[in-house]
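pinned: reference chain
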Amino acid sequence: MAKILIVDDSNAIRQQVGSFLEINGLDFVAAVDGVDGLAKLKANPDTKLILCDMNMPNMDGLTMVETIRNELGNHTVNIIMLTADANEAMRKRAQEAGVKSWIIKPFRGEGMIPMIMEFLE
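pinned: its structure tokens
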């Protein structure tokens, strides 16, 4: 199955989301920030979906998304922001950068499988 990339500076969130994906039989890799996320994406070209935090050290989620779209030219990977930030201006910027969905933390996996599976097609 296609890979999912989890990008979050919180080890607890990476473990929580990763465990949820694993229980549901989904393959994933995890990254600790935007810089690591870009490296993992390059190393895993079969990645179909990114679940990404907004606020992270070294490189924030929006900068990572804009880099994926503009510098890497990758317009096919689906991106969902998983964040505690509900700022409307950031949400608009994220949509303009190509983010497909916005999920406010805390992460609750129930009900997400249909959306995740749709993005993996």
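why pinned: The two ends are 10 Å apart (CA to CA). The first helix runs from residue 11 to 23.
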